[in-house]
């Protein structure tokens, strides 16, 4: 499942971006993590590759900040740590945030949706997660899981 550390890292980027002028940036970062797939049988999948990240912040006429971050997998593959099955990862993540004026809270919605696709029948998984993110005036980050779903053999 999506690691809380990824959400905290995204929140940190947004807090830093909130102090910057309106802009859009694009960059790539290495990616590696282990996903626990809760199907029958359960599986652990090591995901590795590159994430392409596009982030942008705009300022409205009232001084409100509106930001977005999109993460797309580029060449990310997964390998089952239990049986060696190799997966291709497709999909992405989107975070939309808003800050009214110059004071907190920063409020956002984080949607993560991707598929692990392997050769053969009944080897695919689909992961969908939705989080609500709040960063208060002191920088405390609160993440609330709204929905998490893994579809087996999707």
What low-confidence regions span 5 or more consecutive residues with pLDDT below 50? 1-9, 16-20
Strand pairing plus helix content: what structural class? mainly beta
Helical run tally:
1
Number of strands: 7
Distance between the ends: 16 Å
Average pLDDT level: 81
Strand order of the largest sheet: 1-2-3-4-5-6-7
Rounded Rg: 17 Å
Shape: elongated
Q: How would you describe this structure to a colleague?
A:
- By secondary structure, the protein is mainly β.
- The protein is built from one helix and seven strands.
- It has one helix at residues 4-18; strands spanning 23-37, 43-59, 65-80, 86-99, 106-117, 125-135, 141-152.
- The longest helix is centred in the N-terminal third of the chain and has 15 residues, at 4-18.
- The model is unreliable at 1-9 and 16-20 (pLDDT under 50).
Concise summary:
With 154 residues, the chain is mainly β. It is 10% helix and 63% strand.
Which helices and strands occur, and which strands form pairs?
Elements: H1 4-18, E1 23-37, E2 43-59, E3 65-80, E4 86-99, E5 106-117, E6 125-135, E7 141-152
Antiparallel strand pairs: 1-2, 2-3, 3-4, 4-5, 5-6, 6-7
Features:
154 residues; mainly beta; seven-stranded antiparallel beta sheet
């Amino acid at each position: 499942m999506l690691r809380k550390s990824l959400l905290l890292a995204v929140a940190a980027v947004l807090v830093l971006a909130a102090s910057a002028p309106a802009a859009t940036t694009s960059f790539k970062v290495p990616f590696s993590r282990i996903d626990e797939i809760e199907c029958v049988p359960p599986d652990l999948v090591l995901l590795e590759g590159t994430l392409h990240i596009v982030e942008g912040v705009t300022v409205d006429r009232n001084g409100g900040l509106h930001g977005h971050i999109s993460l797309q997998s580029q060449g990310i593959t997964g390998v089952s740590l239990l049986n060696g099955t190799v997966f291709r990862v497709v999909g992405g993540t989107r975070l939309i945030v808003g800050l009214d004026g110059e004071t907190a809270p920063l409020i956002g919605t984080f949607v993560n949706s991707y598929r692990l696709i392997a050769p053969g029948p009944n080897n695919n998984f689909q992961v969908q997660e939705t989080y609500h993110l709040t960063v208060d005036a002191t920088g405390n980050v609160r993440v609330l899981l709204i929905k998490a779903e893994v579809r087996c053999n999707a």
